[in-house]
Write a structure and sequence with these properties.
Layout: H1 7-22, E1 28-30, H2 35-42, E2 52-55, E3 60-65, E4 78-81, H3 83-90
Parallel strand pairs: 1-2
Antiparallel strand pairs: 2-3, 3-4
């Protein structure tokens, strides 16, 4: 299933994750979407910024700096590529 498409369900999801984040849980989105496509969706939907974004069918990994607020559970800064992940995927490819 998808996280998007039901605004009411997304609000419930966000509320539950705000509580979980305040307890130290880590929010990770894993999607087939690229980071660019994910960022475009943010203007249409009230989606929490994850601690880690895995996109492009697993070929991209990003964290956010500054990280999303643990207290508020939302807001995050610039997406920073996890270079070790990208390098590991390139090994053995021509």
């Amino acid at each position: 299933d998808t996280l998007l498409g039901d605004a009411e369900a997304l609000q419930v999801f966000n509320a539950k994750w705000r509580v979980l984040r305040s307890k130290g849980c880590t929010l990770v989105y894993n999607t087939g979407r690229s980071l660019r496509d994910y960022l475009a969706v943010l203007s249409e939907w009230e989606v929490l910024t994850p601690d880690v974004f895995v996109g492009g069918c697993g070929t991209q990994m990003y964290t956010f700096h500054p990280p999303p607020s643990r207290a508020a559970g939302s807001g995050g800064g610039e997406a920073i590529a996890v270079d070790r992940w990208m390098e590991a995927l390139r090994e053995g490819w021509d």
